[in-house]
Each structure stands twice: as C-alpha cells, then as structure tokens.
Write a structure and sequence with these properties.
With 110 residues, the chain is α+β, with helices and mostly antiparallel strands. 29% of the residues lie in helices and 29% in strands. Helix 1 packs antiparallel against helix 2.
C-alpha cells in the first residue's frame, strides 16, 4: 500500500530527496525481513517545509526484552540526524509497528 501528496510539494534538494528515498528503502527492507510481517504501507507527505515518510506494518510484537528494530535501524537514525531530521518507531495498541521520519525539505528549514 502506498500513498503520497508529493505532486503538490515544493521542490526538494536532489541530495536530500535521494537520502530520503534511501532511508525509506532501508526501512522497507527491514520490515520485510521480519517473519511476522505480511503487509507494509508507505505514505509520504509534506507539511510546513518538511517531508514525512511513514512505514507501517502488521508485525507481531517481539518477545519481552528483544528489540528487533534497534540494530537494523541504527544506520537509518544516523542518516536522519545528518539531515537535521527526526525519526521514531512506535508500537500502536492495535499491533504492528510504525516508523516515521520527518526531515526539512531544504537546508533553510530546521
């Protein structure tokens, strides 16, 4: 499942666009490597000078004390930080996992 509002988005610097694509690609691959995932949705939207990419999946929650995202996602969090962005992994009460990245469209935004 994929959705986007980028058709109406302001122009994004090419290097930032490529980096955002790579972040989404790597997060998508991490989700697909989880045995319990059967559905992954991707959404991309812009708001207030930022672009937000969100991946949600239907994974079963890991057993207590086991964080399946921390190691595979560490390089993603590092890339997001280099872009002056923010990243979060959430576990909704309904189940699954949500990974959200927000970065400024251009270096002028913080």
């Amino acid at each position: 499942v994929c959705s986007s509002d980028l058709e109406s988005a302001p122009e994004m610097e090419a290097n930032r666009l490529i980096a955002m694509f790579r972040i989404a690609q790597e997060a998508f691959n991490v989700a697909l490597q989880q045995e319990s995932v059967s559905v992954v949705s991707l959404s991309v939207e812009t708001t207030g000078g930022h672009v937000m990419v969100q991946l949600a999946d239907d994974r079963r929650q890991p057993s207590a004390g086991r964080d399946v995202l921390s190691n595979p996602m560490s390089s993603i969090f590092h890339r997001v930080k280099q872009l002056n962005g923010q990243a979060a992994v959430m576990s909704p009460a309904a189940g699954g996992s949500v990974f959200r990245v927000t970065i400024p469209l251009n270096l002028d935004y913080k």
